[in-house]
Structures are given as C-alpha cells and as structure tokens.
Design brief:
This protein is α+β, with helices and mostly antiparallel strands. The protein contains four helices and eight strands, in the order ββαβαβαβαβββ.
C-alpha cells in the first residue's frame, strides 16, 4: 500500500489497481440517514434531496461571494446490525460471500455530499428553504455535519456495484497485510453516474477507515 498525498482532490482520484492509504481531514457533509436497499425509494429520495440542496448552496455561494466550490460526488456509509448480518459482511470481506447473501432491506446507510468553503450552516439553511415545494420527501432529514474520517485504505472499483465483492476482499486483505484492521463503517464514493454510464464503466471508490492491528 502507498500513502496518497493530499490536497483534497487526491482523495477522489485513486489510481486503478492500487490500494492506497489516505488521511481524510475534517470536512463538512450534507447527510441524509436511512435504511433499505440502494435501489429502493428511500435512497433515491435521499439522493434527490442532497443534490437539490448542494446545487442550491453552490449557486447561493456564487451569488454571495463571486465563487463557489464544485458540487462533489455522492458518497455513502453502509453497515448492518445484528450478529447474523454482520457475520455475512465479515465473510464478504474475506472473499467467502457477496452482499447478495445479506438482507438488503436491513442495510443501514448515510448518504452524503461534501460541502466546501464558504458553504456553511447559514447557506445550507437558505438552500433548504429554497428547495421547499419541490416534493423532496427526504428534505426534512437532511443535516450538515462535520466529520474527520482520519486514516483510511481505499481502492478504485471499476464495474457494476453488484460485483464489488472481489474488490472488497482485496481491500481488506491489503489492510491486514499492512498490519492494520478496519474501524468504523464501509464508505463508498460514486464517481460514475449509473443513469449515463454502462455498468462495466462505473467507478466507485471503496474506502475503509483503519487503525493499527
């Protein structure tokens, strides 16, 4: 494993075929929590609300300050609860199962998008107010949260989301080989748009916070 140099853009431009260690600094995120399969209504509603507010904040910043940070990619934290489901996920990390073996209806998630300076709580509140009336069912669950993820291992997966299991196993093997162990929640960053890209061309950063074993 190599340690990627930052600026922030380096966290979103992994090199294909290589597991990298990155240090994720304190960042602000718009977050919508939920439960269920990623193809379900609730996750789609969360995405709609996140992008509506992110683009609203972008244009408000540009109007107020003359410039605005780019709208960042969609991200999500994923986890399961319960001994049986957690056991299956651990087996996925060892390469002995796939996420298809889990109960997708029990998946927990937090969908999120990074918000760069100068977007703050005031700008976000105004963007949320502007989004009222757009039939965004997840809008009332959106929040602005500051989070420092810290040291993470990450790998670029290219291909359908349903075929992530070998990439996940490779990521966790590299973590163990590096004298590290997972901590926190599985993190995905979606660089490809499934509405426009063929499944085999989708690009997803698989990120796992780590600590010394």
């Amino acid at each position: 494993m190599t340690v990627a140099t930052q600026p922030l853009s380096a966290l979103y431009k992994p090199r294909r075929g290589r597991v990298e260690l990155v240090d994720v600094p304190e960042l602000s995120y718009l977050v919508v929590p939920g439960q269920g399969a990623p193809e379900g209504f609730d996750f789609a509603a969360a995405i709609q609300a996140l992008y509506a507010v992110s683009w609203g904040a972008h244009f408000l910043s540009r109007k107020a300050f003359g410039e605005a940070p780019a709208v960042m990619p969609l991200e999500a934290l994923w986890w399961v609860e319960g001994e049986r489901q957690q056991g299956i996920v651990e087996e996925v990390a060892r390469g002995g199962a796939t996420m298809a073996d889990t109960d997708r209806g029990e998946w927990r998630w937090e969908a999120m998008i990074v918000q760069g300076d100068p977007i703050d709580a005031v700008v976000v509140a105004e963007a949320v107010a502007q989004a009222r009336g757009k039939n965004l069912t997840a809008l009332d669950r959106i929040e602005l949260r500051t989070w420092t993820e810290g040291r993470c291992a990450q790998l670029l997966h290219v291909g359908p989301y349903a075929e992530e299991a070998p990439s996940l196993a490779r990521l966790h093997t590299a973590i163990a080989d590096g004298g590290l162990r997972p901590r926190g929640r599985h993190h995905e960053i979606y660089l490809g748009d499934p509405r426009r890209a063929a499944p085999q061309r989708l690009r997803t950063i698989l990120r796992q916070p780590v600590e010394p074993a």
